[in-house]
């Protein structure tokens, strides 16, 4: 292969891979996030309809994270054995079905069981997709790629927040309340996407028919050099993987920030409704879209800047600090304008850290145990989500919205302080590549 043509071949290969992998991965995560957080909008009517208290809603929100935590590592070990196409396709069909089951719940216990089942079904998706993207993209591209993938959170929220509020308020067909139709309308397309995954998602670059032989070889060589340069590339032992101090630091950082993020998913719609008297469910949905409209622009720009500079630590840390400041602003002011400004800061901060952060584990941890490491980090995030939502049920009952926002601010600050103590070397900046 002519070495003079390698940069051009690399750019061409990465453009094709991005065009083929990222859009479908984005759509899958769009529905994944929407199906996970729609219970927060359903609660605007569901809690009254089923006589669910604040404490019981905390249990509902946390039930998802119990099963999500327990099944995270086994699910990610399965992706290496079964392949991405079959495993992720099965996961998507399963969580779409679990979402659809919420249409039929009759009491708080049914809701808790359905949310627990959703956690079982979703457990392998996000860490599986992070591992999958690491199998396709060199390290110097991962912050930008991960930001594009996780931009689905912002887009999903921008679309789903007003849509969910409108469905809950206005879709009352065949004597079923709008919150029930919310789960049906958002669950059925997910099942169809799961079926499509079996046909559209190749397991490895070797299976990609849309790359020619030279492109497959370049990608294999590039990824192979990274693996060859890392230590401990043999078959990983679980005890050895979990014995890495760096892994535990990364896990605690992610646990704290995700506890704040995931708690906000469930509690924020109800808190926003208390911003002013007379806000309708549709208006709550529109206000909830504000932070994610801002994040749609900030996420890809921040991730691209991290790739251009090769800097990860501060690109992940500053957004965490901004999120904490945002929660303090929302908790401390009464002006609707300032609260919406705080919401915008929250959206930019809580989502922009993802791309730079998820470029760190593949750079610092053994590639042989990477899938298990990613699953462990995400498991700790689930533990944080469980504990935070369980605790916030009692905090909300005792201290109201102010207490909820102050706890979330403290969690963001903890992640920021822990991350800035780590030594994370700069990576070689990415080659210029057109998306």
Q: Quote the CATH topology.
A: Growth Hormone, Chain: A
Largest sheet: none
Which geometry do the CA atoms define? globular
Which architecture name does CATH use? Answer: Up-down Bundle
Number of helices: 17
β-strand amount: under 5%
What are the segments in which pLDDT stays under 50 over at least 5 consecutive residues?
431-435
Structural class: mainly alpha
The residue-averaged pLDDT reads 84
> Domains counted in the coordinates: how many?
1
In which range does the helix fraction lie? over 70%
Cα Rg: 21 Å
> Termini distance?
25 Å
Order of helices and strands: HHHHHHHHHHHHHHHHH
Q: Give the name of the CATH superfamily.
A: MFS general substrate transporter like domains
Number of E-type strands: 0
CATH class: Mainly Alpha
Describe this protein's structure.
- The protein is mainly alpha-helical and 435 residues long.
- The chain has one domain (3-231, 238-419): Growth Hormone, Chain: A (Up-down Bundle), CATH 1.20.1250.20.
- It has 17 helices and no strands.
- It has helices at 6-49, 54-70, 72-82, 84-101, 108-122, 125-134, 142-170, 178-200, 213-228, 238-242, 245-273, 281-309, 313-332, 336-352, 354-358, 360-364, 370-419.
- The chain is globular and about 60 Å long.
- The two termini are 25 Å apart.
């Amino acid at each position: 292969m002519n070495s003079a043509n390698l940069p051009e071949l690399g750019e061409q290969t990465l453009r094709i891979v991005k065009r083929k992998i990222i859009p479908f991965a984005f759509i899958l995560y769009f529905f994944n996030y929407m199906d996970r957080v729609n219970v927060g909008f359903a609660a605007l009517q569901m809690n009254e309809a089923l006589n669910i208290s604040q404490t019981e809603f905390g249990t509902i929100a946390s039930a998802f994270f119990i099963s999500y935590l327990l099944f995270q590592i086994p699910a990610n070990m399965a992706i290496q054995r079964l392949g991405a196409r079959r495993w992720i396709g099965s996961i998507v069909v399963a969580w779409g079905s679990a979402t659809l089951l919420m249409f039929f719940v009759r009491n708080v216990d049914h809701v808790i069981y359905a949310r627990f089942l959703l956690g079982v079904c979703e457990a392998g998706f996000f860490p599986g997709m992070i591992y999958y993207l690491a199998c396709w993209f060199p390290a110097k591209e991962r912050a930008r790629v991960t930001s594009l993938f996780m931009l689905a959170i912002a887009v999903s929220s921008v679309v789903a927040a007003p849509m969910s509020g409108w469905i809950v308020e206005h879709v009352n067909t065949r004597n079923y309340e709008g919150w029930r139709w919310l789960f049906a309308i958002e669950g059925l397309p997910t099942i169809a996407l799961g079926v499509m995954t079996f046909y559209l998602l190749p397991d490895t670059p070797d299976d990609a028919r849309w790359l020619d032989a030279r492109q497959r070889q370049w990608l294999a060589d590039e990824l192979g050099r990274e693996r060859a340069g890392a230590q401990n590339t043999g078959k990983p032992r679980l005890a050895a993987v979990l014995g890495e101090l760096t892994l535990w630091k990364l896990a605690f950082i992610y646990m704290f920030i995700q506890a704040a993020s995931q708690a906000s998913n469930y509690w924020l719609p109800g808190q926003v409704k208390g911003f002013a008297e007379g806000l309708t469910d549709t208006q709550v949905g529109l206000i909830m879209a504000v932070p994610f409209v801002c994040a749609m622009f900030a996420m890809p720009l921040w991730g691209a800047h991290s790739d251009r500079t090769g800097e990860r630590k501060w690109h992940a840390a500053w957004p965490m600090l901004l999120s904490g400041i945002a929660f303090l602003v929302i908790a401390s002011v009464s002006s609707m304008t300032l609260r919406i400004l705080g919401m915008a800061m929250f959206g930019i901060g809580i989502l922009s850290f993802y791309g730079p952060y998820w470029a760190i584990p593949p750079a610092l941890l053994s590639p042989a145990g990477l899938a298990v490491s990613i699953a462990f980090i995400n498991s700790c995030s689930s533990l944080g989500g469980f504990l935070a939502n369980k605790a916030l049920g009692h905090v909300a009952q005792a201290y109201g919205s102010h207490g909820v926002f102050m706890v979330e601010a403290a969690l963001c600050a903890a992640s920021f302080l822990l991350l800035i103590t780590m030594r994370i070397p700069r990576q070689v900046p990415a080659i210029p590549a057109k998306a």
